[in-house]
Amino acid sequence: MPSNDRAPLGTVRLRHACADDAGPLTRLFLASRAAAMPYLPRVHSDEATLGWMTHVVLPDTEVWVAELGAERGETELVGFVSLDGEGLEHLYLRPDAQRRGIGTRLLAKAKERSPEELALHAFRRNAGARAFYERHGFTAVAFSDGSRNEEGEPDVRYRWTAKG
């Protein structure tokens, strides 16, 4: 077993997301946020979140998914990353898929797609995400009081550049 005492998940494949992924991505997004950030207010219904995923995230950003089971023909999504140019809009993992290198692979894909620089926002209280991004070379460049996001939660703007 890996040193983190978690059973291996199997072969993980990255691929572009498609319209049919909207439902599974919405469920993954909601489950991940609830597990990692239980303090966040729910500002949208599940149905509204599905509409946002379907009509905004998938058509307007570049979305890559991490999936299991491609070799046996029964795939399940375990994570995704969403990019808008040099903006890393979303990186979420299914709660049971964390700390297995999948987030690192998705972030590497983001850096491959935007090789010069990336920027993102993370909630200040999301210590796990902040530590993850800092381990991967991101630097905090600005702090806000939460007035810029729907949740009203203070956040941090991070930046990564290929130059370091």
Describe the fold and architecture.
The chain has 164 residues and is α+β, with helices and mostly antiparallel strands. Mean pLDDT is 92; it is low at 1-5. The longest helix has 15 residues, at 22-36. The strands form 2 sheets. The protein has a 4-stranded antiparallel sheet, with helices on both faces. The termini are far apart. It has helices at residues 22-36, 46-60, 102-113, 127-135, and strands at 12-16, 62-68, 76-84, 87-93, 117-123, 139-144, 155-161. Strand 3 and strand 4 form a beta hairpin. It has 4 helices and 7 strands; from the N terminus they run βααβββαβαββ.
Helix content percent band? 25-40%
Number of strands: 7
Radius of gyration: 16 Å
Number of helical regions: 4
List the helices and strands and how they pair.
Elements: E1 12-16, H1 22-36, H2 46-60, E2 62-68, E3 76-84, E4 87-93, H3 102-113, E5 117-123, H4 127-135, E6 139-144, E7 155-161
Antiparallel strand pairs: 1-2, 2-3, 3-4, 5-7, 6-7
Helix pairs in contact: 1-2
Features:
about 160 residues; 4-stranded antiparallel β-sheet; alpha+beta
Brief digest:
The chain is α+β, with helices and mostly antiparallel strands and about 160 residues long.
